[in-house]
Amino acid sequence: MRVGLDYRAAASYPNSGLGRQALALEQALRAHPDVQLQLFTVAPDNDPLRRKAHCPAWGSPLTGMHRLPPRIRFEAGFLPEALRKCDIETYICNANMGLPLARKPAGVKYVLQLHDVFQLTLANAHASKIKALIYGYTDKLSIRWSVNSADRIWTPSQYTADELVKLFPGARDKVRVLPNLVLPFTGELADISDLGLPARYWLCVGTREPRKNIPWFVSAWQQARQQNAEVPDLVLVGAREDLPSAQQHLHGIHFVSGLSDPQLHALYAGAARLWQPSYAEGFGLPVIEALAQGTPVAVAQGSALDEITPPDSPRFSPTDSEALVHLMKSLAVDHPVDTAALKTWAEGYGEQAYRQRFNALLEELR
Fold first, then answer.
1. Of 104, 179, 196, 319, which residue is 20 to 30 A from 74 by alpha carbon distance?
2. Could you give the CA distance from residue 186 to residue 284 in angstroms, rounded to a whole number?
3. H-type helices in 168-270, by residue range?
């Protein structure tokens, strides 16, 4: 089975959520005994990546994979002919969009890995209103093209599958759920004493996108802290500038960014609890990463977080501030935690479970 994989996310942003899942696909495909894998991506001139993957003759910076002109040039000008020359039987694109902009050849199957539909349903963070307008329009066109072109669409959660079908009812029979691979951290915990964090803290990961709901959450945390001195300090993985100015220098709030994997490992392990207040999540990687350390979590209701979180974990409405303040006060003092059970739950998103699901979906394409 000759399989082509869109490698742009892995080449450009290997530590991002998209990049990590692209690498997971690569490893699963290489481990399959019946697969001959070929990679396709853009790359700068003379980049070593050109020895590993099929790249256009023209050079392109890796960090520009989301820019519209290089995307169109790759997906329309390079990819259709490159797939034909390599005699690819199945092509997998893993960035919500990006399938070839040409008529699909007979006998070739396309797979779209669609992580969420928030580019279509929510206002996302962009550098300017003009960019938001341009990307909003072109993303809609590109996602629609890829959804219509795909023979199969893999989503990381049933929530995302259902949201997709609401927008594209005709895609219902194409959709399959492939939960994301979440590899456990390995090695020793890093020494993060230089971050100046308190001995006890709550943790939130991700601040940039509005759907992360962080300003609302911080407001509730501030109220809870004023009412109960036991409410811990709050550590946010993200930029201070992502919050309103009035929240950027609150007493007890700490911002960290640019962490290495060992540092992030230590941050999860040291947290009294991870909070995930997002009103929209296609999966929720930090939740599984925290659980894998035996760290308890509390999550907002109404998205994929409902699926990936242990049923006995605290949940809250992403709009009811009063209820969240009450929950925070009730959890201000640590409760006994079955860390082994949390780690076992996280193993359900580990390599063995992922490979079993992936192999079954790949077999379906034969």
1. 179
2. 20
3. 214-227, 261-270
Rounded Cα gap, residues 53 and 11, in angstroms:
10
Tell me the average pLDDT across 335-363. Answer: 96
Task: Single out the residue of 81, 89, 82 nearest to residue 40, CA to CA.
Answer: 82
Amino acid code (one letter) for 216: W
The token pair at 266 is: 């230590």
> In the block, which residue shows the tokens 């890829």?
146
Query: Which residue in this structure is represented by tokens 């959890």?
Result: 331
**21: Cα separation from own chain's centroid:** 8
- Position 124 scores a pLDDT of 63
Per-residue confidence (pLDDT) for residue 347, from 0 to 100: 97
What count of other Cβ atoms lies within 10 Å of the Cβ of residue 206? 20
Local confidence band at 91 (pLDDT 50, 70, 90 cut-offs): very high
| Residue 302, Ramachandran bin (φ over 0: left; ψ between -120 and 50: alpha; else beta) | left
- Residues forming beta bridges with residue 325, ordered by sequence position: none
Closest of 320, 213, 323 to residue 277, by C-alpha: 213
Q: Domains in the chain, please, with CATH?
A: 2-181+350-364 (3.40.50.2000), 193-347 (3.40.50.2000)
Cβ-Cβ contacts under 8 Å for 56 (sequence gap 6 or more)? 42, 73, 74, 77, 78
**pTM of the complete model:** 0.93
What number of H helices and E strands is found in the chain?
14, 12
Report H helices in 150-274: 158-167, 214-227, 261-270
Looking at residue 126, its pLDDT comes to 52
Is 280 strand, coil or helix? coil
CA distances from 218 to 211, 330, 340 (A): 14, 17, 30
List, for residues 164-218, the tens digit of each pLDDT value.
999 999 999 999 999 999 998 988 999 999 999 999 999 999 999 999 999 999 9
